[in-house]
Amino acid sequence: MNIGLCGTGRMGAAIAHRLLSVGHTVTVWNRDKAKTKPLAEAGAAVASTPAALAAACDLTITMLLDDAALDAVYSGPDGVLSADLGGKAVMDMSTVLPETEERIGAATQARGAAFVECPVGGTVGPARDGKLFGLVGGEDADVARLRPVLDQLCRRVEHVGPVGSGARLKLAINLPLLVYWQSLGEALALCKPLNLPPERLVDIMADTSGTTNGMKLRAPDIAKALAGQPLGAPAFDVRAARKDLATMVAYARTLGLELPTAQGALGSFTEAAQSGLEGQDAISVPVRWAGKTGARS
């Protein structure tokens, strides 16, 4: 299939590599053209605009940071919606507000295209290996049409309702993990008087009932960070985590709900971003908290 992908950040690039590896013809676009160069070297074509990409491809996939970026790529000058989409398919894999998915989905369908949303669980490694967890929203026929591609990208695909449903579930799924990273920092701070080696402390905590699967998977990296050792490229950075938390809080308010623990975590992630950690891995937040001395400023 001829597939286009708008947004070649870490996750978008990993998805593009996966699509190339399973034999699709891939065209990419990114606002920062330098980020498309490695994909061009891997065999992808590069489009000049989102509209040009959508016009050239049978399926357009978008993987963008936030609601503003999504609106710009769809509705801005030379956006996806300015192309002739008749008979084509569009899939958004961003983590954004449900109402954003609903609005963009309706506008895309009005242009004659099928639209499916599929925010995903998983980071760069699973994206390259086709082992993401897809949370799909869309009409039955549209999801069935795109199921072969979804199965190539995801180890598990859950169609959870109409457009907007995937976004709702993705926000709910991310909330406990992001709150956990903040609570882990507080727990590690309580352990400072023990003076245990980071590897031992993290190993103990990762083998208890209070941990998460994320902690089990990232324990070696957390131990390295606690020991002051540099980490590689972030799997999920502070900027993206903070955006997800802000989106959760905003969405909850449309339901008349407050999320006090998520709001507290948002404050910690915002503070970390403002301290210069915006582009660092999200595990830098608990590590930073554990290293604090004295009261929170």
From TrEMBL:
This protein's name: NAD(P)-dependent oxidoreductase
InterPro entries per record: 6-PGluconate_DH-like_C_sf, 6PGD_dom2, 6PGDH_NADP-bd, HIBADH-like_NADP-bd, HIBADH-related, HIBADH-related_NP60_sf, NAD(P)-bd_dom_sf
Catalytic class of the enzyme: oxidoreductase
Lineage: Bacteria, Pseudomonadati, Pseudomonadota, Alphaproteobacteria, Hyphomicrobiales
Residues at the active site: K170
Pfam families the record matches: NAD_binding_11 (PF14833), NAD_binding_2 (PF03446)
A GO molecular function held by the record: NAD binding
Ranges for domain 6-phosphogluconate dehydrogenase NADP-binding: 2-161
E.C. code: 1.1.-.-
The entry's keywords: NAD, Oxidoreductase
Matching PANTHER family: CYTOKINE-LIKE NUCLEAR FACTOR N-PAC, OXIDOREDUCTASE GLYR1-RELATED
Occurrences of domain 3-hydroxyisobutyrate dehydrogenase-like NAD-binding (ranges): 164-282
Natural source organism: Alsobacter sp. KACC 23698
